[in-house]
Amino acid sequence: MNLSVRRRVPCLRPVLAFGITALLLSAALGGTADAGAVTTASVLKAAKTAIAEQTGVHVVFDANSSSSSTHEKLIADVGATTGTENVSEGKSVLAVRVNPAFAYVSGNQSGLAALFGLSAKDAKKLGADWESWKSGTAQYANLKADVTFAAVTALLPTPKGTKLSTDISNGTRFYVLKWTTAGTSSEPELSNTLTLSTGGAILPTEETTTAPGGAKLTTVLSDWGEQVVVATPPVASTVASAQVAG
User: Fold this and answer.
1) Is residue 10 part of a domain?
2) 208: burial class by Cβ within 10 Å (0-12, 13-18, 19+)?
3) Which of 50, 57, 80, 134 has the lowest CB atom count within 10 Å?
4) Tell me, what CATH number does 163's domain have?
């Protein structure tokens, strides 16, 4: 297997395979009165800075389609250089673990095949063990990008075409960003809404994405500042990728 070609790896913004305002920033951005009015660009810049200063965040992702019984759920603990991810879709399950030295993947037969892209033969060969990749390999880099802050930053849109407003929920004010992702020949047009905290650090709290036909994805982010500790699989249950594909 050519590991330079990325397998389908679950991430915080997976593809929908089933068809799927003005305020002052002096406090939130730590600026002075001449900081000016808040803009979409300034909120996004502040969010990127705030994310980079965190140690971790808990993420729960749900994807549902009104035209299908398919339901995908992802639970992750994301850090700057480490992360974990557990994915389920129907009876298929997959687990991802990344630390500074290795990336690991395990799951049941259908999870390894349908969610990660292993051949049925390789999925059977791996069994209940963990496939591993060393830091420095292409697949390690791909997996790390999916379970570290690179994936969280990817939730942020570009300023162009994104509308900014505010909302109050349970007495707490949030920034609200809304934008549309153009459709392509293979993917539908998507409507996106991202809420971010306004007190102190500006951080993402929830994103929803909807597509024609009722497909909906929801990503909830909580426990900002958590410490992400990744348990290393037992050596006896770890198999180097080359041995799986060999």
Assistant:
1) no
2) middle
3) 134
4) 2.50.20.20
